[in-house]
Amino acid sequence: MIEKINLNNILFLDIETVPEEENFNSLDAEMQSLWDLKTQYQRKDDFTPEEFYDRAGIWAEFGKIVCISVGYFTIRGDIRNFRVTSFFGEEKKILKDFNNLVNNHFNQPQHLLCGHNAKEFDIPFIARRMIINQIAIPDKLNLFGKKPWEIAHLDTLELWKFGDYKHFTSLKLLTKILGIPSPKGDIDGSQVAHVFYVEKDIDRIVTYCEKDTIAVAQIFLRLRREDLLIEEEIIHV
């Protein structure tokens, strides 16, 4: 029962990713060929590999992380706060900083990680990019040899599915139907690469990522039938 989980023990998270190179022609010939093979089913005959490259950020082999936003509750008595912070900049530093946070502050058996579609996207993407960047994967992300009930991950999409595994509900739709203020601002996921490479506006991406992290926490509260966070309870650090 999610109502029994101590909110203080959950690390909420969201990531933003972009293609590892700004454009297809920046890839070496072998990577171009591998991209062609990797995406041939998704592209069919509608797009060339080069035309499809703007979607490379959804694959860890061809993308990279430009921001990880995290949030956690601090509840003392009747005072509830939700603290949000972000890691951004060079990818290896992002991953090391996130790794340090998890290992130093969310490494106990009772601690959980939570995101929207995080089991399918955010957490595997982080783990794969850590391996590529030769960073040790924290135990909370390393699933090898663990039984299902030992995996310390919560997923608001999975909680909403109620076992209906063919069902997908976006974060934006779920916040709308649950009466949660929309997390989306002036950009969406498809525009992150443009904002990163062309506009070079990482602050805009960080704001977008933090809004999503807050939205995940709001959904979790709604699933527990608890009051939503108000602006005064949210602290950006």
From TrEMBL:
Organism: Flavobacterium cutihirudinis
Matches recorded under Pfam families: DNA_pol_B_exo2
GO terms for MF: nucleic acid binding
Protein name per the record: Predicted 3'-5' exonuclease PolB-like domain-containing protein
Domain Predicted 3'-5' exonuclease PolB-like: 62-224
